[in-house]
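Entry 14. Structure prediction run on the chain below.
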Amino acid sequence: MSQTRLLSVLVENKPGVLQRVASMIRRRGFNIDSLSVGPTEDDAVSRMTIAVHVGRQQAEQATKQLAKLVDVITIDDITGLRNVAHEMLLVRMHTPPERRGEILDVVNIFRGRVVDVAASTSIIEVTGNTEKIDNFIELMRPYGIKELARSGAVALVRGDQARIRLVDFDINGNGDHHPVGDDVAADTTGTV
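Output returned:
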C-alpha cells in the first residue's frame, strides 16, 4: 500500500549532492512530495528530509539506491518510528479590519503568529505537522488566501535511542564507504 514515507538522509555538505539525490529518486519514478535540506551540528554534514509517496518496498528500494551514492553518509526510513516532523507555512491572507479579529482567533488556536501586517493583508506563520498545516489552510480558505508558501517537513526521531540508520557509512575523505564499527553491524535492535 502506498503512503507518504519520510526518509532522513545525512549527506556530505558539498555542491551537487542535492541534485544527485533528487535525480536518483526521479530515475526510480518516485514523486518527491517535499524535500528539506539544511546544515547539521557538523558543518561538513547536511540533513535531507525527503517525503515520497510510495509503498514500503519501494521505499526500501529507494534507500538502498541512495545508500550507493558516494555523498550519502546515513539513510533511514523513519515513517514508522516515533518522530517529530514539522513544516512551516507562510500565508498572505486578505485581512480587512472588520475580519481581522476573527482571523487572529483562528491563528491563535493554531499557535500561529502574524509576521507582517499591511492595510488589507497579513502574513501569518504556522508550524506543525502536516495535518495541522492542512487543517489551518482549509480553515483560512474562506477568508481569502492571497499567497501561500510551505516548507517541506524537517524531522528527527524521538528519544535517546534514536534509530538513524538503515545503512551507516564513515566519511574517510576518499569517497569509499565503510560500515561503521562492528557494534553497529551487530546491532539487531535497529537502534544506535
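The chain has two domains: 3-82+158-185, 85-150.
Filed with the rest of this week's runs.
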